[in-house]
Specification:
By secondary structure, the chain is an alpha+beta fold. It has 2 domains: 20-52, no CATH class; 63-186, Tetrahydropterin Synthase, Chain A. It has helices spanning 2-18, 26-52, 62-73, 117-140, 144-147, 150-168; strands at 81-84, 90-93, 102-112, 176-186. Strands 1, 2, 3 and 4 form a 4-stranded antiparallel beta sheet that branches. Helix 4 crosses helix 6. The protein is elongated.
Length: 187
């Protein structure tokens, strides 16, 4: 009987030794893990935007910083630009369920003098169906709240600028300096 008690006590000791130490505060571990994930996600986002070469507004007063970053990151500005005004208007239904609203946008492009005018106009004419399709799908993905306000319109301009530069001038320095709204109506 004494042997059985010794075996039981040895088994209990082995079980206690094999148990992993329990964490004293699991909430703290989850909080640290969450903070690490948020920091890494934010860093990845901002590094991606820096590599891509476009600006990210950081504060409410970022409107001036945004326009300065666009000219700083796009093309060296020698003061001479030209405008492409022949881009056809785009109309798209907004993504607001139950409400029939649409946006109509007519764009003017400010092009750097680094782009040869005749070749760039030909490129715009050749790529107009692709650019119009992209812009229609993009506008259709926006809701009324996504479009309202100065800050949202500047964000839309930046996204259109990035997409059009990428489509028209892949693997090159961007040649479209600014996107200007000739008309932007919501009904």
């Amino acid at each position: 009987m004494a042997e059985e008690e010794e075996k039981k006590s040895e088994n209990e000791q082995q079980k206690e030794e094999s148990k992993e130490p329990q964490s004293k505060n699991p909430i703290l571990q989850w909080a640290i893990l969450g903070a690490v994930v948020i920091v890494l996600a934010g860093a990845g986002f901002f590094i991606g935007r820096m590599i891509k070469g476009s600006s990210v507004p950081a504060a409410a007063g970022a409107d001036q910083q945004d326009s300065q970053a666009q000219t700083d990151n796009s093309v060296p500005d020698d003061g001479k630009t030209w405008f492409y005004k022949d881009f056809e208007p785009v109309v798209a239904n907004l993504n607001d369920p139950g409400v029939m609203r649409y946006a109509r946008a007519t764009l003017t492009f400010e092009i750097s003098s680094a782009a040869q005018q005749d070749k760039t106009i030909k490129l715009f004419q050749d790529k107009t169906p692709i650019l119009t399709n992209w812009l229609t799908i993009y506008l259709a993905s926006l809701s009324l709240e996504d479009i309202r306000g100065d800050r949202n319109l500047k964000r839309i301009q930046t996204q259109i600028l990035d997409a059009f530069n990428e489509e028209l001038f892949p693997n090159q320095k961007p040649k479209i300096v600014h996107i200007l709204f000739k008309e932007f109506a919501i009904q």
